[in-house]
Design brief:
Residues 1-32, 99-118 are annotated as: Disordered. It contains nine helices and 15 strands. It is an alpha+beta fold. A five-stranded antiparallel sheet has the order 2-1-5-4-3. Helix 5 runs parallel beside helix 6 (239-258) and helix 6 (239-258) packs across helix 7. The longest helix has 28 residues, at 160-187.
């Protein structure tokens, strides 16, 4: 088996190409791990392509060449490589993976072959770099011809029975993913308009393949006009964690609004309510209450990292005060409020531990990195570039959810 030519370096164009103009490959950087990953890729038994975010073919293994009979595919748009049946569906699936950063599956789709078509399920898996930007896509073809009955099958139509089964399976997986996304998106609500404050937020799940997890944020305005900001982290990064998070978030939101209480009292009542209802939820939670106009704030922490204050001159400092016991451990645990001033042009940044934790590194070191990074991602107008913050503090794929919520007190000339 002759291995394909050297793999070109991925580029990052904006849209998926559907034309016929070949791209110009470039020479890759030599790996430093001692493993020839290109040789490993070339020998994989399943047909695979590596694509740039624009759909240009960057690499192809021998199994793909054998299955689809395309000897010269490097540097060509995917649209030129795929057989006509099912091409539109496959291209749409690849575009979706490039746009969302999540795996996509399509099929069964046929490819012409002697003795009748071969049938394939095609899965596109994105690879990501800093800030979860899609840098390349791996298109894998899995043959399902053997489970596609011929004309003598029970339905009398080639492939009809098995295709219906496979279609139903693909549809069920898609529905499950969509339902999970709807569930989680419903909990990550739009931020309210608060006089004198500008709110901003970013949420990034731990795994691109699953949009659900235990992190959440919330922001609402109490009847007194006091703004309440919440970030929390329930143990886990899956649908079960999202379900527990939903219980906790809903309880805290309801009590925090209806009782019009301060942060510590809101945490106490939430914990007692969940315990009384038999809801076994353990989480870190930070609750911040900002007075009308944004001049003063109070905050309470149940095992959560303290918020960081970004001053008007760009310097940053964590607010002082050790976190108290996690929520859900002891309903009678002491909870106390701490207070701080929020001056014009200053920003309060609340976050979950995914922003500062890295393997083999202390949380204290992560906090130091965050504090040192904040002045660099502050824009000329005083706002923080949260996308750049994620790129710098969370490069590549992390293994924890990340939530960042900010509240900036507007200067007098921007409104109060």
């Amino acid at each position: 088996m002759t291995p394909p030519p050297a793999r070109p370096t991925p580029t990052t164009p904006a849209t998926l190409s559907t034309g016929t103009t070949p791209a110009t490959p470039t020479t890759p950087t030599t790996p430093t791990t001692g493993v020839d990953y290109h040789a490993v890729f070339a020998a994989l038994p399943a047909p695979k392509l590596v694509l740039g975010p624009d759909g240009t073919v960057l690499d192809v293994n021998a199994a793909f060449r054998a299955a689809f009979g395309e000897p010269a595919v490097l540097g060509r748009p995917l649209a030129d490589v795929l057989p006509e049946p099912g091409r539109r569906e496959v291209l749409a699936s690849v575009r979706a993976a490039a746009r969302t950063g999540r795996p996509q599956t399509v099929g069964p789709v046929p490819s012409p072959a002697a003795g009748g078509p071969r049938w394939w399920l095609l899965t596109t898996t994105p690879t990501t770099g800093p800030g979860r930007r899609v840098t390349a896509l791996v298109l894998r073809a899995a043959e399902v011809t053997e489970v596609m009955p011929g004309p003598d099958g029970p339905t009398g139509r080639p492939g009809a029975g098995a295709r219906a089964v496979v279609d139903a399976l693909v549809e069920a997986v898609g529905i499950e993913r969509a339902e999970a996304e709807v569930l989680h998106d419903s909990l990550l609500t739009e931020l309210p308009a608060v006089p004198g404050l500008a709110l901003d937020v970013r949420y990034r799940p731990a795994h691109a393949r699953s949009p659900v997890g235990g992190d959440w944020y919330d922001a609402f305005v109490q009847p007194s006009g006091q703004a309440v900001l919440v970030v929390g982290d329930v143990t886990g990064h899956d649908v079960a964690a999202a379900a527990r998070m939903r219980q906790l978030r809903g309880t805290l939101r309801t009590l925090g609004y209806a009782e019009d209480a301060g942060p510590a009292e809101t945490l106490r009542r939430t914990e007692r309510t969940l315990a009384g209802l038999g809801c076994a939820v353990t989480a870190t939670v930070l609750v911040v209450a900002v007075a009308p106009g944004g001049r003063e704030l109070r905050w309470a922490s149940a095992g959560h990292l303290p918020p960081v204050l970004v001053r008007a001159d760009g310097s940053a400092v964590p607010l002082r005060g050790a976190p108290e016991l996690l929520l859900g451990v002891d309903p009678g645990a002491a909870r106390s409020d701490r207070s701080a001033a929020l001056g014009p042009g200053e920003t309060l940044l609340a976050f979950t531990d995914g922003l500062v934790e890295r393997r083999g590194e202390s949380v204290a070191r992560g906090l130091e990195r965050l504090v040192a990074t904040l002045p660099d991602i502050r824009r000329a107008d005083g706002t923080l570039d949260l996308d750049e913050l994620l790129v710098r503090c969370c490069p590549g794929d992390g293994d924890d959810d990340v939530t960042v919520l900010t509240a900036r007190r507007l200067p007098a000339d921007e409104g109060a």
